[in-house]
Design brief:
about 250 residues; Rossmann fold; 7-stranded parallel sheet; globular; about 15% strand; single chain
Length: about 250
Amino acid sequence: MTTNKTILITGASSGIGKELAYFYAQHKNNLILVARRIEKLTEIKSDVENKYKINTKIVEQDLSLTESADLLFEKVKNDNIHILINNAGFGINGLFKDMDIEHITNMLILNIVTLTRLTKLFADKMLKSDGGKIVNISSTAAFQAIPTFATYAASKAYVLHFTEALAVEYKNTNVNFIAICPGATQSEFMETANVKNVKFFKMPSSKKVAEYIVESENKNKTTAIHGLINNFLIFILRFSPRKINTYLAAKFFD
């Protein structure tokens, strides 16, 4: 477990991001927590500081705006950040023809543009200092097209491929990259995406997924897929026609 370092976590007010904050705090890492809901961040800050005697900085920032990555970087550029976890993101479930284009655009800014800009800004800073690690949260949705989750799955495919490519580009530097691919998880994400049920298997808790992310980050993997079932399903995708995979993916969500 990484100790005595500073971890920046986006989307830290609930779900996986919140659980990550507690895992890292337990091992005496200092935190920078970023989210829109300052009241939630304030509660987490107070709790982890009282329990674990660490330093916690909170930043109120809506990351679904075009300029948000640069605004966030300006607020923390003087902090010595060892690990950046690009966790913030949301999905939209529904037929593309019925979706609001502004809602789609905000999702793509958050899931792709902000993540990319933060990765660039912090990677450049890490290269000039003592190095560091960037953890980008992708999804098992990244491995195939998913009807009614078309834009979200496509955005997470970008995150996966982008991160894997950077892991090779930076292999001889002091900056490491890892893409984490959770499956459907019990969190506010599912409520925001208006998903009532995921068929065929039980969703793990945000705490279980966060624990896996921390374990994978410490093992210096490049790509990590959470769960035996998810690993098996992704493995068999390569043996089935893409069109069939897409039709089957549509059956997983209500």
